[in-house]
Amino acid sequence: MTALIFDMDGVLVDSNPLHREAWARFNLLHGLATTADMHERMYGRRNDQIVRDFYGDSLSAEEVASRGRAKERIYRELAADRLEEILVPGLKRFLDSHHHLAMAVATNAQPENVNFVLDRAALRPYFRAVVDGDQVVNPKPHPDVYLKAAKLLDADPAECVVYEDSHSGAAAAVAAGMRVIGVRTTYVNLPGTCLNVDNFLSGDLEEWLEAQLRPV
Q1: What are phi and psi of 182, to 5 degrees?
Q2: For residues 184 and 204, is the Cβ–Cβ distance under 8 A?
Q3: Which is nearest to 168 in space by CA: 56, 7, 1?
Q4: What domains can be seen in the chain, in order of their start residue?
Q5: FRET pair for 174, CA 20 to 30 Å: which of 25, 32, 117, 162?
């Protein structure tokens, strides 16, 4: 059995530009100017990691969580009327074409954001399992989210194909023993990937996946 597991931000939705804007607005409220390097450091990381990176380790766990939730409220406000237009091109057609396969979402994102994207964009019915950043102790680049998704799908990690856009996400999938397809919304090429594509309209993607599904 081949199972497909998708990261969310940068894979289902090309949302990183909105996340950058949301962090810039949030940081400004706290008197912090957001640099290009700070934006770069946020990709593929869980909010508790980002908040501590930006504001230091002196914050309590409650304050870290509160700041993460506040930033994500800004993101959802920015994305509310744009969600359909920022879906990665070809996504729904790709999901429709492969609905017979076991599919899951595995993301560092907070559950509120996961629910927002999956429900507002009508994506939830495609996925048999959803794992968010609050369901594991160790976020990406640790393999926990991907191993949990495989377990929920009753799939061997070696039979899972992961779609990722970030270095930490690709590293997590490789550490889980899974094959990785890079989606070029964030980086041109990711290390450890079997293939890198612009989006789900890529003919190379379908050709590669068909080869994996073909009986030996």
Answers
A1: -90, 130
A2: no
A3: 7
A4: 3-15+83-213 (3.40.50.1000), 16-79 (1.10.150)
A5: 117
* Residues that are catalytic: 7
The pLDDT tens digits for 88-112 are 999 999 999 999 999 999 999 999 9
d(CA 35, CA 17): 14
Tell whether the model's pLDDT for residue 1 goes beyond 70. Answer: no
Amino acid at residue number 147:
L
Provide the whole-model pTM: 0.89
Q: What tokens were used for 118? A: 């999956």
Residue at token pair 């994506």:
123
How far, in Å, CA of 23 to CA of 160, rounded?
A: 33
Token pair belonging to 8? 């969310």
Length of the chain: 216
pLDDT at 40: 86
The SS3 of residue 5 is: strand
Each residue's pLDDT tens digit, 173-195: 999 999 999 999 999 889 999 99
**Residue 167 near residue 181, CB atoms below 8 Å:** no
Please tell me what DSSP assigns to residue 43: T
